[in-house]
């Protein structure tokens, strides 16, 4: 499923379509979801892209990000990575968390935009600090491998540990496996001093967010292992 998940069970598709035609941005987005998943209506990726674009043109952040996803994959619209990057950038400008990750990945790979590992790392940080597990994972990897940032295994540790901890509370098995394997591999490379420093940084990060009651994906916060 290319578009973000949403509640489509028991949709009144006719009512939703009526509201979408009048310009109701939320109805347009939900109708795009319905056509993308085929729930309550015949699956039609072209209509999914059409309604997603209608919502995106009104500035709906999730739809802006979805248009980037559709253009990147070439589903329902022509495959165009430069267009995907432009849509992601518009979504990120509105603070859409996963758009930071999507745009960062394009910069990391040089797809549709110039390859720029520093810009990618900066975008991953924006996502990670807003609670994105994928952002935490990618930022941790950037610190570990020194991609766009100075190599710092002690700084990679808290981001990978948070990605590992919170991914255990999600249904995303790919993310769970990746985060767990990355953390295990990092720990195998770290000296005792680096690991101790990493644990201290994790404690500091957790304490800071508890102090301001900043939400983190998954609800709870990890403890250093």
Query: Residue ranges: pLDDT <50 for 5 or more in a row?
Result: 1-9
| Structural class designation | mainly alpha
* Main sheet makeup: none
Return the domain count. 2
Q: Encode the helix/strand succession as letters.
A: HHHHHHHHHHH
Rounded radius of gyration (Å): 19 Å
| Strand fraction | under 5%
Terminal Cα span: 35 Å
**Overall spatial form:** elongated
Mean pLDDT: 91
Oligomeric state of the chains present here: single chain
Count all strands and give the number: 0
| H/I helix tally | 11
Fraction of helical residues = 55-70%
Describe the structure.
The protein folds into 2 domains: 1-96, Tetratricopeptide repeat domain (Serine Threonine Protein Phosphatase 5, Tetratricopeptide repeat, Alpha Horseshoe), CATH 1.25.40; 116-212, no CATH class. It is built from 11 helices and no strands. It has helices at 13-21, 25-37, 45-56, 61-73, 81-93, 97-109, 117-129, 133-145, 153-167, 173-189, 192-212. Helix 4 runs antiparallel to helix 5 (81-93) and helix 9 (153-167) runs antiparallel to helix 10 (173-189). The radius of gyration is 19 Å and the shape is elongated. The two termini are 35 Å apart.
Give a summary of the structure in a few sentences:
The chain has 225 residues and is mainly α. It has helices at residues 13-21, 25-37, 45-56, 61-73, 81-93, 97-109, 117-129, 133-145, 153-167, 173-189, 192-212.
Give me the secondary-structure topology:
Blueprint lengths: L12 H9 L3 H13 L7 H12 L4 H13 L7 H13 L3 H13 L7 H13 L3 H13 L7 H15 L5 H17 L2 H21 L13
Helix pairs in contact: 1-2, 2-3, 3-4, 4-5, 5-6, 6-7, 7-8, 8-9, 8-10, 9-10, 9-11
């Amino acid at each position: 499923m290319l578009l973000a998940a949403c509640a489509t069970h028991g949709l009144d598709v006719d009512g939703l379509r009526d509201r979408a035609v009048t310009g109701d941005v939320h109805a347009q987005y939900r109708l795009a979801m319905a056509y993308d998943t085929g729930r309550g209506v015949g699956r039609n990726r072209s209509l999914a892209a059409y309604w997603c674009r209608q919502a995106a043109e009104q500035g709906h952040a999730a739809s802006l990000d979805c248009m980037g996803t559709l253009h990147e994959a070439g589903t329902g619209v022509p495959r165009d990575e430069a267009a995907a990057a432009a849509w992601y950038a518009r979504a990120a400008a509105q603070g859409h968390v996963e758009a930071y990750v999507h745009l960062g990945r394009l910069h990391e790979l040089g797809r549709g935009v110039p390859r720029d590992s520093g810009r990618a790392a900066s975008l991953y940080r924006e996502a990670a600090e807003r609670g994105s597990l994928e952002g935490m994972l990618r930022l941790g990897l950037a610190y570990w491998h020194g991609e766009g940032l100075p190599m710092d295994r002690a700084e990679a540790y808290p981001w990978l540990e948070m990605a590992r901890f919170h991914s255990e509370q999600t249904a995303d098995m790919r993310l769970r496996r990746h985060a767990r394997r990355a953390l295990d591999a990092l720990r195998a490379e770290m000296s005792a001093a680096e690991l101790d420093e990493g644990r201290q940084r994790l404690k500091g990060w957790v304490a800071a967010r508890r102090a301001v009651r900043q939400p983190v994906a998954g609800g709870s916060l990890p403890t250093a292992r």
